[in-house]
Amino acid sequence: MAEEEKRKVKRVFIDAESGKQISEQTVVTDAKDVATEVKVNRVEASGDPGNRRGFAVLLWVLAIIFEALAALSVMQSSPLYGRLPLFDPIVWMCVFLVLDFVCVVAAGQLWKQANHIDPPSEKNKFEFFLKSQLGAILSIVAFLPFIILTLLDEDADKQTKTVATVVAAIALAVSVGASADFNPVSSEDLQEMEANAIELGDGTVYWTKSGSVYHLNPSCGYIINSDTVFAGDAAAAYEKGLTRPCKRCAVASGDETLKKLSEAGSVTTEPSAKEDAAKDEASSKDDAASKDEAAADTTDDSVDDAA
Fold first, then answer.
1. Domain edges within the chain
2. Which residues pair with 215 in a beta bridge?
3. Which of 41, 117, 158, 224 is deepest in the core (most CB within 10 A)?
4. pLDDT in tens, 39-97
């Protein structure tokens, strides 16, 4: 009975920019609404990791300067105390801490993006940790000394110490959380991804607009219903923050290897790794639901021709 439900559907891949047909593929699937015309957006890695790291370093320097100004503006023994116009010292302290926070978070994001384009090697564990988590480390440097100095300031009143400590502690916690890389990637990961993509085709990987993982197989069950997919090399996917593979694409299913699956142009129907591809599946359903009547007629015609 299950065999009777399987259908052969021809998928036509169209370059989104030129409108020209890239390729076509016959897919054996149980899906009801497979996209028969798939628009492919070619994406190339365009970010310059050197520039991003340079801007990140500059922002970290500014953050340390703002941290120092925050401390000087609120410490009564400082020559800057009470000499800044318009606001009270405690208000200036908060302003400098906010500027410190903005610089730290922006620098952390730039550093993570640079690491995804040009990831560090994992051969030296300490160096890999240092480069991967430098944003979180410098977030601590940008706030912890200020907290210590404020608490040790004998001239500061209790209210000033309380406000300064609370504001700086919140900024510290949020900036560390935003700057830490909870899924760091290495140059070895990138090389392995490139090797897998080349082994299975022309080195191209695939993803959807709302997806959180990349796919090695354009006919993966989680993106087969999508009428628009993005395609690029490993660096392009990493630049978009897609550092994890779809488990359905990354491992063998049953007795078939992924390579055989790709060569056969078929799709596995065994449920696996749903939690990793939930966003891609949702994106596919949205694409299928938004097809107009003309697209549905095209699908039926393709099925009849394949049968």
1. 49-179, 185-208+216-271+279-307
2. 206
3. 224
4. 767 766 666 788 899 999 999 999 999 999 999 988 888 888 778 888 888 999 999 99
